[in-house]
Amino acid sequence: MPTIHPTAIVDPAASLADDVQVGPFCIVGPKVTLGAGCRLMSHIHIMGRTTAGEHNTFWPQCVIGAQPQDLKYQGEDTELLIGDHNDIRESVTMHPGTANDLGVTRVGSHNLIMAYAHVAHDCVLGDRIVIANGVQLAGHVCVKNHAVIGGVTAIHHMVTIGQHAFVGGMVRVSKDVPPFMVVEGNPARVRNLNTIGLKRRGFTDESIAHLRDAYRRLYGPMMRNKVVDTEAVCADLTDAYPHDPHVATLVQALRDTAAGLHGRSRENTRKDNRWSNPSK
To answer: How do residues 134-156 score in pLDDT, each as one tens digit?
Structure first.
């Protein structure tokens, strides 16, 4: 049987694995499912149609699964799905999806989401991500595997943060972040290859050299205020490194961004009329 503190309120309809621990003053709603090994430390509210996998730890003052902060939301029965082994720190907020997207917000596994971070409706987070204190993810943001986002950074809706990217602290990100790159400053722009992160994650010296060459071709001229034909460079990189999957990933991400609106590939997935008043 789950271990439930006497001051906690757990709806009888909630589904809790036998070894779940629910600490003092927590509230768990009727549509919540918590997998094996989950721990709710104290003063946590989990509501809505929220499913968390195994061995997730929720720290005090988290609010998980509350109604999306979206004027277009009309009470539809949408979901928040959380994977395994996530460390969700103090005062984090996460919201389910909306009918304006796929109706689900997804958080992968082995992520560290630090205090006061916000994961808005319809976000898609991969695995082994680090989101530092106070990071704000707007709706429909996609953060791919192994990305790191520095503290108090704000991510515009529909932005994609590429895999193994590093985003600095206190950055306003309004366009897609290419995989494998370091993005810093205001306005945010690519500053370097994330060499340290790639080495930590076991990338070969050969692949790092290929990606460093890609960085120089794509962003070196921009540092000197020269215009770059990104598609031409992508074609050259494909010819130069036809068997390197990481270069292929970078090229595809850049092409997806170019095909989107306002530098955001996910803008192409919008279902709403952007000119209508969402409050009506």
So the answer is: 999 999 999 999 999 999 999 99
Report the distance separating Cα 113 and Cα 203, nearest Å: 24
Is residue 262 part of the annotated active site? The answer reads no
Rounded CA-CA distance 138/124 in Å is 11
pLDDT in tens, 93-123: 999 999 999 999 999 999 999 999 999 999 9
- Scored b (16 or more CB within 10 A) or e, 103-123 reads bbbbbbbbbebbbbbbbbbbb
Q: Is 77 exposed, middle or buried (0-12, 13-18, 19+ CB in 10 A)?
A: exposed
Is 127 an annotated catalytic residue? no
Task: Out of 122, 140, 168, 244, pick the active-site residue.
Answer: 122
Read off the pTM: 0.96
Say whether pLDDT at 246 is over 70: yes
Catalytic member of 45, 95, 121, 156? 121
Residue 162: C-alpha distances to residues 144, 145, 181, 272 (Å): 5, 8, 8, 25
